[in-house]
Specification:
The chain is an alpha/beta fold and 203 residues long. 31% of the residues lie in helices and 23% in strands.
Amino acid sequence: LCLIIGSVRSGKSNLLVNFFCNPDFYKDKFDVVKFVSTTLHTDNKGKILSQHFDCVDHYEDKMIDEIKQEQSKYDKEDRPTYALVMDDVLTKDFKKSNQVSFFSTRFRHYIDFYIIAVQSFRAVSGMIRNNATDVIIHKQQNTKELIKIAEEYGDMVGGEKKFMELYNEAMKDRFSFLYLSKYFNIINCITNGFIRNIRSGDF
């Protein structure tokens, strides 16, 4: 499960297009790529995605049930490889008890890659936070949001102060981000043409 956190115009859409249209990432790696994005039609990135993938501009809980039912028809070895992207579906007003959150604990039984992209970290339930093995942090416009993120992930890099130092370094360039891999205990500070790899054990 990959959690992407970023304010408006922070580069989330560019990253998602690159994920699935760039051969250096995941282009042609999955039999099915489905985008559920409430902001699908707000810029030309949505048009690009709609040309190549199964895209819908609204969310309903039954969509998760339909994916589970369809994928359950196959034995695991014959199951189509599947990537699911939930983009800007979760908001601060979105109830925490929803299928997007519940699916974060069970998705491995049905699909291969699950991405949840949000503008507000406070909209992310504990279930999603606990099951996200990879976290991508784009520029945050809201200081309270950034403090919450630092509190959540600061221990990975030696504390909240160190986290803020890395965040500020990464955000010097437009559309840059921090990449945190909780499974491999790795932090990449990714800016334009620059990757700084840090393991929390160094602190």
